[in-house]
Amino acid sequence: MFGSGTKLTFRDYVQGTWGTFATPAGRVDYIMTKARLGEVTDDPERQLTKSLAPVREVMEAGDLDFNQLLQRDLDDHRVAVKLIPYLLDLKPTGPAFFPPIVAVLLPFRGKRPSYFEPLGQQKVVPDDGARWQQEQAGTSFRVQRLIGDDDRLHPASVGKLWWNKTESQLVVLDGQHRAMALLAVERTMTKSWQDSGGARFRSFYENQVTQALHDFGNVDLSRIEVPVTVCWFPEETGEEAKPHEAARKLFVDVNKEARPPSDSRIILLSDAELSNVLTRRMLSELRNDTSDSLLPIYAVEYDNPEVNSTRPARWSVLTNIHLLKFAVDRCVFGPPKYLNNVAQKIGGRLSQTELDTFMQRQLDLTSLFPDQFEDGGFTYQREKIGNTEFPLGRMDVISDRFAATWGRAILTLLSRTAPYAAHAKALTQSKDDWHIDDTGLTLAHDALFSGVGVFWTLRDSYEHYLEKKAAGLKAAKSDVIRAWEALKGREETFETYRARAYLDSGRTAALKQSKAAYAVFNTHACQLGVVMTLGSLWELRKEQPGGVDINELPQFADALVAAWNAYFALEQGKAKDRRLAFNKNEVNQPLNQIANMDTPQAVYFRYFWLQVLDTPEAWEHIAPWFANRTAFENMLSTARGLYLELCQDQQFKALKISKPGVVDTKLRPEAEKAARAALGRALKEWFYGTDEPYKSWLAQFAQEGAPTQQLDDAAGDAEDLGGSAEGAEDEPVTSVDDLLGE
Fold first, then answer.
1. At 165, is the pLDDT very low, low, confident or very high (cuts 50, 70, 90)?
2. Which label site among 352, 470, 602, 638 has the fewest CB atoms less than 10 Å from its CB?
């Protein structure tokens, strides 16, 4: 309808119907237009196709802060095998139809998020034979709206938006898969992959586009148009504005009624819960760490597209975003009963008020905020701050406090405790030794170390390849397939590196022992157990003379790490290799007899980590923190009693299977005897070297009975801590041998 104008100072622009609406992200202005394929021309609709970009092409993955994430990772496999054929298959009824793509104009300098200059005053300007209301944000972007003869906005609502690519980028906020299908066809037909930000993903698409164009004949690309809504935030200009944060909020709002994002994405994107904000902060601390004192970010899986994923899928990672969220929940929000009472199982209904009150104490909000304060036009009561009600404008204050205390302490445990430090060392060695000499190896490398969703695309593509082969169809072994096969080969190399890092040997026997060890160490149950040990001991520390200072938490975590590592490093000789103390398999007399290592079993792993501290070599590192050891010994005794109860129950269930028909009154004493004997042998082998400490404790336990459990509403719903199995070790118990790992 209107051309580019004679006074154009911006190279890129769109034109169409303009509008505005209010969202939780603030005011959003937009222009509704379209992007199309076909012959290369200078018209804005054709150029818009080239301007669209997913986040991964606008920002370097290594520089992406977790608070700047805007969208889910691309499923390149789905785009290549489903959306592109749909787009190009021009049926008699006309070309395929896609719902509008939503793109947002955001400020960048290079590939770093930036800010727009302040939006200037409105003025009336002539252009293309018409009069327009114009406003401009420096050299970043310019907006024009058509006005009528009465100097009021024209009812046709025609508008134009220009932007400067050196300062602004159109980032796809919703419909990124549709946009990628359009871009893949565009780049393949114009041979412009190498000139784009997505050159590394060329292998996913080029052959698929070429094959689709061949299959569908002479496709008239000019008939392929996709509606696009281009948005910007007029109130988010100037140095203090936060347009990227507004975009993230808009993404959540746009997608809240769509197919739900994965749990990982909700944690990464949503500001609705403070626990999500604090979890993201730990990821950002890992990403920004320059001291090499923390585990590398690629050792954490945070991009799993599966909904309700509760364990890592990559063999290379040590932990995942869900474990970090559990750590925040338990240590910061509690509730306190989970930390103070080590006989308390995880389950039952929780009081949000109790959780919020505990968080206020754990983060010492009294020292951060007055009793009452203003933020964003709202009045907040400090005592009312909680997981879902907190001042967004002061979010960084809370996040900084967490990062310097609990966040640093949690990451220290997961980074420097011997088995986790060894895993991270082996993974970094694998990365450093990775010689990339072809496209397949580049994709495989990105799948493990870049965090841009490549792993899932390779996995899906390989499964598709196998399905085609099984169906007798032609299936070429592309770079994508070779990349997945390269990943499988690298897994063996990594496991050798890890065995050497942890057990000082890469021989077959050590490899088996190392795999068995990490089948335990890398479960949520074990990792949450180590974090809950920190939380419980900090609660115990509060009762010591002088109380606690929250700022000492990182030093306390250092002491725990030193204690545990001292135990793992004990002289081996003819004695047990303490590095295998948590193994279920590849050892005799295992301490770990937990049949099902689901996340709620963390309470039993907390006992293991406490038990390690009861050795002289470990205790000397934490002794300065506890003037009264009796309180620790009482906690250890209670935790051991809870674990012995579990072992007895498991033994009883196994005996009922192996001895059908025998009455329970006969099986129960037999189960208790077997469980107590097995635990005694394990403690003698791995910790005490003598029967006396355990015999003394057992006599007291038999006299006093099992510890009481304060389960709130035991008949209530189980807390959602992840109910999926944690691998092969989670198979149902079928015999006593299964329980003992013998």
1. confident
2. 470
The DSSP line for 20-76 is: EEEETTEEEEEEEEEEE-SS--SSHHHHHHHHEE-HHHHS-GGG--GGG--SPPP-H
Is it true that the peptide bond before 335 is cis, omega within 30 degrees of 0? Answer: yes
Closest of 162, 269, 174 to residue 229, by C-alpha: 174
**Could you tell me the two tokens for 18?**
């303009």
Nearest Cα neighbor of 339 from 590, 126, 55, 603 is: 603
- Nearest partner of 368 among 351, 354, 380, 376, judged by Cα: 380
First-to-last alpha carbon distance for the chain, in angstroms, is 80
| Residue 605 CB-half CA count within 13 A | 26
For residue 364, the SS3 value is coil
**Structure tokens of 496?**
């050798």
Give tens-digit pLDDT for 635-669.
999 999 999 999 999 999 999 999 998 999 999 99
In contact, 536 and 340? CB cutoff 8 Å: yes
* pLDDT score, position 222: 82
Quick one: CA dihedral 297, 298, 303, 306, positive or negative?
negative
The residues, any chain, with a CB within 8 Å of residue 104's CB and separated by 6 or more, are 170, 171, 173, 230, 231, 232, 233, 247, 250
- Block residue for tokens 């080239």: 50
Alpha-carbon span 16 to 31, nearest angstrom? 6
Phi, psi (deg, nearest 5) at residue 372:
-140, 140
Q: Hunting for tokens 């890398």 — which residue is that?
A: 522
Q: d(Cα 293, Cα 201) in Å, to the nearest integer? A: 33
Q: What is the DSSP letter of 260?
A: P
Q: How confident is the model at residue 3 (pLDDT cuts 50, 70, 90)?
A: low
Picking from 157, 122, 112, 162, the residue whose alpha carbon sits closest to that of residue 141 is 162
Distance set, CA 260 to CA 44, 108, 253 (Å): 33, 29, 12
Tokens of 413: 């445990």
Q: Has residue 534 got a pLDDT over 90?
A: yes
Burial profile 182-217: b = 16 or more Cβ within 10 angstroms, e = fewer: bbbbbbbbeeebeebbbebbbbbbbbbbeebbeeee
- State how far the Cα of 169 lies from the Cα of 68, in Å rounded to an integer: 14
d(CA 30, CA 460): 36
451: left (phi over 0), alpha (psi -120 to 50) or beta: left
Q: Nearest 5°: phi and psi at 368?
A: -105, -35
* DSSP-based three-state secondary structure for 337: helix
Give me the DSSP letters along 114-165. --PPPP---EEEEETTEEEEEEEETTTEEEEEEB-TTSSBPTT-EEEEEE-T
| CB proximity list for 25: less than 8 A, separation 6 or greater | 233, 246, 247, 249, 250, 253
Q: List pLDDT tens digits, range 76-96.
A: 877 888 888 888 876 544 455
CA dist 383 and 396 (Å) reads: 18
Cβ atoms 654, 733 nearer than 8 A: yes
Helix (H, G, I), strand (E, B) or coil at 225: strand
Neighbours of 605 (CB within 10 A): 27
Residue 725 has pLDDT above 70, yes or no: no
DSSP state of 552: G
Q: Give the phi and the psi of residue 228 in degrees, each rounded to 5.
A: -135, 135
Contacts with 307 (C-beta within 8 Å, 6 or more apart), sequence order: 260, 261, 262, 263
